[in-house]
# Entry
Amino acid sequence: MTYEFDEQTAVTRRDDATYAADLAPGWSVGGGLNGGYLLAVLGNALRQAFPAKPDPVAVSAYYLSASEAGPAEVSVAVRRDGGSLATAAADLRQGDDVRITALATYGDLGRLGGDVRTTADEPDMPPPDQCVPNTMAPPQMRAVAPLMDRFDMRFHPDHIGWTVGQPSGNGVLSAWFRLADGREPDPISLLLVVDALPPVTFDLGLPGWAPTLELTAHVRARPAPGWLKVRHATRNLAGGMFEEDCEVWDSAGRLVAQSRQLARQPRA
Amino acid sequence: MTYEFDEQTAVTRRDDATYAADLAPGWSVGGGLNGGYLLAVLGNALRQAFPAKPDPVAVSAYYLSASEAGPAEVSVAVRRDGGSLATAAADLRQGDDVRITALATYGDLGRLGGDVRTTADEPDMPPPDQCVPNTMAPPQMRAVAPLMDRFDMRFHPDHIGWTVGQPSGNGVLSAWFRLADGREPDPISLLLVVDALPPVTFDLGLPGWAPTLELTAHVRARPAPGWLKVRHATRNLAGGMFEEDCEVWDSAGRLVAQSRQLARQPRA
# Structure
């Protein structure tokens, strides 16, 4: 069985440094394609470039222009490949326009030590069937965000006041997450997951889209199959920008990915 | 008056894309030069490359090999320069070795909006004269860390149990910070400040040095003159790596910089 996520994030090797992609329209939101989707496409090119180091460990992406459905190219320039890690620069382009410029370190997460001393608290969430599914989003939101049809998200009921005009003001959003097509999570899909929920600014009464300037993701372990818990928070909305921290916990209760992005504040 | 920090992070323009630096031995710690110092050198080259956009807004650095005192070169490749922000790739090299490869977005922090809706809590610290100065560090520590002589740091007394073999286990370190030569903070020096304290793993009973793999800093405002408060925390020590989050607050009570790094766990 081939999953939609794998088909639509696939890249084809042209030469040692170039990979072709075909960006799919189903991942669009507002005026462009979702940044997490683009990161997964770029991540797949890097995975092909480092066959013995298949997992993203750290990826930093700078978003330079909005992407659109259609052909794209990922170029990879290896900066260092030695020991257990490899680092490369990668660009995702469409025509003459660079959409994303990135740096990434890859390795083999299966070979890391098993010592886990996480002190972060796993988010406390009601079971998925007691949360609010994204399928309940109003049609006008789904019309501008075909992206939402890719996901099965179940929002924490305490974090969706913004859907009825009553944002909490806390700057926190959390949800259960899985891909709608049933594909299980892996380190590449986590690159999508860290930028899949609505902007945390929705919970601050700022409902517009928030363009990402920079996003860095750390993938810390291969996720167990099943539902993921995703939590977004912001603590520093100032000067027209905000940071959005994301944690992703797997079904085994492990903190498998962390990310932080700097984004522009939505226009009021 | 010329300050040590400015002299020793200065770069000389060779051409549009190349800047020469002379890395100073006073910033070494353990086997190499401090990563924050190197980031400030690289940051100065980018500042020269974008005269109308003098401030680092986001900088992501991947540390590929240990630096040593002596000549270095920073190469800058502009990726996008338009509107209020510019993004470039930059490498810091010594001879044939890339020490750091980085991406950065620069802008003019003085032109951002004045709206501040920070919800993060400013760290609660006793006054500097009731904190523990770094000058009290044992001679064997100062011998391997000449870096410490560059700083006037005053550690929160609750966060220095590790100096007497009693780490709290909380994964938190905080200190007042200023440069020993009296230079006031600015956005470039904040690139140093986010990687100036000892590794937060000291507070987890892991006293070795922790090599940075990746560090991303967001500079959110030009800092007011005076003491800075710096707080490091980690929540996910696992698989031989940990994340270290840093917050820097200025004397006016503003959260002026945030960073996160992924580092290797010190050997026990």
